[in-house]
Amino acid sequence: MPLDPALAGRSYPPAPPYQVGREKIREFATAIGAADPVHHDVDAARALGHLDLVAPPTFAIVISGASLHQVYGDPELALDFSRVVHGDQRFVHTRPIHAGDEIVCVHHVEEITVRGGHSFLTTRSALRTASGEPVADAYAKLVVRGED
Amino acid sequence: MEHLPTRTFRVTRADLVRYAGAAGDFNPIHWSDRVAASVGLPGVIAHGMLTMALAGRAVTAWVGRADAVAEYGVRFARPVVVPDDPEGAVLTVDGVRRPADAAGLTRVDLTVSCAGEKVLAQARALVRWPVETGDQG
């Protein structure tokens, strides 16, 4: 069944804070082969004016992904995950994510469109510090294939 | 407009397992041929987010700074099939650097392909490209 476009605009409660750890940044950077010292060496990161290790540009997916089940499991959306493919992904950074950040993620349904039997769901995950300072927005578009 | 040097990235099954753990994305289409086949894929495919991250490494390498990316977006055009062998799959990443805008942000347009087929579309980043002093090693 196609997604209901009337559900666009809905927001979810702030997810539990995500504590960005040095070892997680190092692990993620290693997994993508990013050897730049700003991801691994605190002194190198500080020499470039950062408070602590800097996460690679796509690291926000780890934080948003930790709580996106709020959206994907929304019974009113009723996403059939066997028909879902990741269509687009975009990150807009106010500043890089650092080790030591405590990030609160709020998920929003930006847009739902239905074309040719397929549904397109765009979510925006707003990453903010616990005190509300904006860090990044992660936009994901999922394609839900229609019934064959 | 400046064409940036081509960069290539090899992706093996071991890389997929490592990325799955680091990113917390355990979808079995990224590690099980059986599950991949059951949903009509030719084999295990790379996480789209891994492909995006590797292309992002090309961007930060071109810029010379790993903390300079302000915005980065892609469309996943085609899956990257990763065979269960030491060669895996190879991504080729090309980029074009546009002139900086009024806000000082430089757009980099990316072309990302695997085995001659485009795997990312509309891939572009906005970066704070450091001012070149001409004497950087």
Automatic annotation (TrEMBL), chain A:
Pfam families: FAS1_DH_region. CDD domains: R_hydratase_like. InterPro entries: FAS1-like_DH_region, HadA-like, HotDog_dom_sf. Coiled coil: none annotated. Residues 9-137 form the FAS1-like dehydratase domain. Belongs to the UPF0336 family. This is UPF0336 protein GCM10010124_02640. It comes from Pilimelia terevasa.
TrEMBL record, chain B:
SUPFAM superfamilies: Thioesterase/thiol ester dehydrase-isomerase. One of its GO terms (cellular component) is fatty acid synthase complex. It holds the Pfam family MaoC_dehydratas. Gene3D superfamilies: Hotdog Thioesterase. Residues 8-94 form the MaoC-like domain. InterPro entries: Fatty_acid_synthase, HotDog_dom_sf, MaoC-like_dom. GO terms for biological process: fatty acid biosynthetic process. GO terms for molecular function: fatty acid synthase activity. Belongs to the enoyl-CoA hydratase/isomerase family. PANTHER family: (3R)-HYDROXYACYL-ACP DEHYDRATASE SUBUNIT HADB (PTHR43841:SF3), 3-HYDROXYACYL-THIOESTER DEHYDRATASE HTDX-RELATED (PTHR43841). This is MaoC family dehydratase. It comes from Pilimelia terevasa.
